[in-house]
Design a protein that fits this description.
It contains 1 helix and 16 strands. The protein is mainly β and about 220 residues long. The longest helix is centred in the first third of the chain and has 21 residues.
């Protein structure tokens, strides 16, 4: 015997309600707990070698830029998430008045626009290494009459034992979003490739902070 349509609809509605209730009551997936020591605490980072940048006109080729003086500072804190914001970069220096960044086209000055966000993505307990990136990166570069703006993210690795922070941006991470008087030197859409090593210390000490991720 065929059931009336009204009864079938009622049964279907009840089944949907049960499914929805079951889904809503399911426990949330556990998140990584990021423990920063000390937390919260200020930190500073200074380059341990020249920072090498490349305005990549063609993959692997472009205008090379070398900065002998780079530094940044901010605050680190414990957090939970996959990924998780474990810090904020509030001040950034690329080059200085006595040690400007250099290129084949002449001195290059950079005007960063922080804050940038320190994001932790993965941690390897056996090596004490955290992988992540600096988000919200925004900076303006000037070389001669050419002015270009770069936005995006800076991938990073951080090692607890040494406090070594390696910034390594490849094609597509940092992109020129606008330019004036640059022509083919820094066209919109090309990447700023970055390789820079820094030593990180907790403010007021000679010790590096520790970042440890534990969880699922």
């Amino acid at each position: 015997m065929k059931k009336p349509i009204g009864k079938l609809a009622a049964v279907a509605g009840a089944t949907a309600a049960v499914c929805a209730l079951t889904a809503a009551s399911a426990p949330a997936a556990p998140s990584t707990v990021w423990t920063v020591s000390p937390s919260p605490a200020g930190f500073s980072a200074t380059n341990s070698a020249n920072a090498v940048l490349l305005i990549e006109i063609v993959k692997g080729n472009g205008i090379g830029i070398t900065c002998s003086r780079t530094a940044f500072s901010g605050t680190l804190r414990s957090a939970t998430g996959d990924p998780a914001a474990v810090g904020t970069v509030g001040a950034v220096t690329l080059g200085s008045s006595g040690a400007a960044c250099t290129s084949a086209l002449g001195p290059v000055t950079f005007a960063p626009s922080p804050p940038w966000t320190f994001v932790a993505e993965d941690h390897t307990a056996s090596t004490g290494v955290t992988e992540g990136h600096l988000a919200d990166v925004d900076l303006r570069g000037t070389v001669g009459a050419c002015v270009f703006r770069v936005r995006g993210r800076l991938p990073l690795t951080y090692t607890n034992a040494t406090g070594r922070l390696t910034l390594s941006a490849a094609t597509g991470d940092l992109t020129v979003v606008s330019q004036t008087n640059c022509g083919d030197a820094a066209p919109v859409g090309v990447s700023l490739v970055v390789r820079a090593d820094h030593l990180v210390r907790t403010t007021g000490t000679a010790l590096p902070p520790a970042i440890v991720g534990t969880g699922p």
